[in-house]
Each structure stands twice: as structure tokens, then as C-alpha cells.
Request: fold
Amino acid sequence: VLKDKVATETILRAYGLPVTRTLAAYGPATDDPGIRHLSDAADIARWLSDPAHLPAFGKPRFDSFARGAAAITGSDGAGNLHFLNGREVPALALGAEIEADWARGYLFQPFYRCDAALRAHVGAAMASIRICTLRTDRGIEPWYAVIRIPAQKAMHDGDAKGPRIWGLIDCDSGRVLRLAELRDPMAGPITHVFNPDTPFLGTTLPHWPQAMAACLAGHEAFEGHGIIGWDVFLTEEGALLNEANDNPGHVYQVAAGRGLRNPDLEPAYQRALAHARAINAADGVSQPR
Reply:
């Protein structure tokens, strides 16, 4: 279920949690009557050409790493769309590309923006927060948190040509503890991002208690998962859960400049491992070495 962004969204909304909203989808129909189904390239182009639907953010329904994602800021009324990175593309051509590349499904949601206090440091594209949670004998615990700052002219915080900075966040307070450049995480210290006048290092992120509470509650909805990496948006309206990942990746190692098996994270990891083994034993599942 976590692989399907629509299914994840539906479950989280049913739990009453703050979650981003899919407005329209190309590909297989969804079970949500509130999501407009787009049948082909022309239908995609018509939907995107309506100013009432823009700005919007598009992404594949099942893929990861922000492949195929795009922030569409507006249209010129003559069939062309404007991207956040300054490019202009014909709406029909974009629809044809989506139809050709993403037959399993492609989604459009509002173009969410960071809270203004955060946007002053990270720019116009969304800098999502990765909060990783574990299931242990104590319940759901936070394990680590990282902010992923987009490259300066990118449309999202996924792969881009420019420098990308990831920051380690204190789970309790939401304070930025360390900043590292993704391609050279052991280089010298970073204190500022896009605001040369005010350091981002040491900043306390907005809506932090709400973000953490949503992730902990969200993990309860997925009983079969011992670890989930949440993508969270900190917007003007508060924290929103955007996606849930069953393979959180290497974001902590880059942001913290060290491995996961360290004295700070190891105790919670051991609790999660022991809890998973106990559940498996109770269910009659053989234990791995």
C-alpha cells in the first residue's frame, strides 16, 4: 500500500491526519470520487490549461526519488505551461509525455509552499522533511529527522544539477543541528543556505510538534511496518503528511555525517529489532540469523 501514493493518502485521511490532497490523476481510476480522472494526453492538457487548477505539482503515482515530478506555476492562455524552473512547455506535449512514460499512474496535487519563515532560507520549491519512525515495544518512536533542501533552481528536492543541502534536525525540538552538501557531506561546516544574512543552522522549524505527532499517529495505521520514512511539508497551514516510504534511504547518513549504527540511534534500533523478532516468533515466523 505504501507504494501507492493514492492508497496511502486515503488511509491517512481516514485516520483524520493532515495529508496532502490529490486533485486529479491519469491512469487507473482511483476509489476516491474527489479525484478527477484524466483519461489521456488531451484530457491532461485540458485540466492543466484551466487556471483554476494552477499552480499544481505533478508526480508519478508509484515511483520515487522525484523522477518525473514537476511544479507547474501557471499557463499563458495559449496552450503553454510555465514550470517553476522557468521553462515553458506545451500542455499537450506534457500530457503526451505523461501518457507515454507513466501508464501506471500520474497525480496532480496543489503546489504546496513552505511556511514563509522556512521559505526565506530554502527558496520557492518545497523542502520536505524526512521523519523516520520505528515500531518498538514502547509503541511508535521517532528515530531521526532530516530536511532536504532543493537545489536553487530546481522544482523539487529530488535529484538536480545544482548543490543540494540536507540538514539534521533534533527530533524533540525541531532545531537544525547540522547542514551538509549531498555530494560532499564531509566538507566544511555550512551555516547559511539561500539567505546570506541569517544562518539556517540553529533554526527551529515551524509546526514541529504537529509534524512529529502526525508521523507517530500515521505509523499506527500501518501495522505491518517496523520502519517508515515520512515526507512532511511544513506549510503556512501547518504540517502535512505527503508520502510514506518503507525504505527511508540514506538521508540520515548524509545529514549527520555518520552511519546509522551509532550510540545515539542504536538503542531504538535494538528495541525495534527485538520487537519485530518477538512478533514474528508469536506468529510462528522463523527468525533470520
Summary: The radius of gyration is 20 Å. The helical segments are 5-14, 41-48, 91-101, 116-122, 208-220, 251-256, 266-282.
